[in-house]
Design brief:
- The chain has one domain.
- It is 73% helix and 0% strand.
- The longest helix is centred in the middle third of the chain and has 25 residues.
- The chain contains 8 helices and no strands.
- The chain is mainly α.
- The two termini are 14 Å apart.
């Protein structure tokens, strides 16, 4: 769930600190492009397009790496992708701490990192483990609940995902508002690094 919390951090950083652009949640980003194209103030078509392009590039790279790492366990593949993500976020942290004229480079680096991770998690397909978007998780919580005649399968995992995203977004928002971009990006880097290091060395992520 650490990587889900990092996604909340990243979206807080990008939306609040990089001009109302999402770099983890591409659903929101497509909507933002629609707002900007319609002339709504405060939104950037260029920033959103940079984010989309970088995210898709990351997903393509992850697809290529999947073929190279196919012989490895799912845990090993995810650990290497999270390592790459941590390096991209570390670069973002360094840029944010050294210059204030870095909006588009930060959008590109964080979206690239999220594209890498999302494509890899999608390939692993762990049920109800989402790292950027909670729409299907929330739908499952409602439609599979006892109120809907269901049995609440994987209730704990689903609730943990929602709580992790909420916590990451809240912490990210506080840090962006009070400290700027450097500290929340550093926290994102450390969170991703911790997630990579705590993955099992031999067991499957499934």
């Amino acid at each position: 769930m650490t990587v889900t919390a990092v996604s909340g951090l990243i979206d807080a950083i990008s939306y609040l600190g990089l001009g109302h652009v999402f770099t983890a949640n591409m659903t929101g980003n497509v909507v933002v492009i629609g707002f900007a194209a319609a002339g709504a103030p405060g939104f950037s078509v260029l920033g959103s397009l940079v984010s989309l392009a970088a995210f898709l590039t990351g997903a393509v790279i992850a697809g290529r790496l999947e073929g190279v790492m196919r012989a490895r366990t799912p845990s090993a593949r995810l650990r290497r992708i999270l390592g790459l993500e941590a390096m991209l976020l570390a670069a973002s942290t360094a840029i944010a701490c050294t210059t204030s004229e870095s909006v588009h480079p930060l959008i590109a680096l964080t979206a690239l990192a999220m594209g890498l991770r999302n494509a890899t998690v999608r390939r692993l397909a762990v049920p109800d483990v989402t790292t950027t978007v909670l729409t299907l998780t929330l739908t499952g919580l409602a439609s599979d609940s006892t109120w809907a005649g269901g049995t609440n399968p994987r209730l704990g995992r689903r609730l943990a995902s929602v709580l992790a995203m909420l916590t990451g977004a809240s912490v990210g928002a506080v840090l962006v508002r009070h400290t700027g971009l450097g500290w929340p990006l550093l926290l994102s880097t450390l969170g991703t690094t911790a997630a990579a290091l705590t993955l099992p060395r031999r067991a499957s992520t499934r």
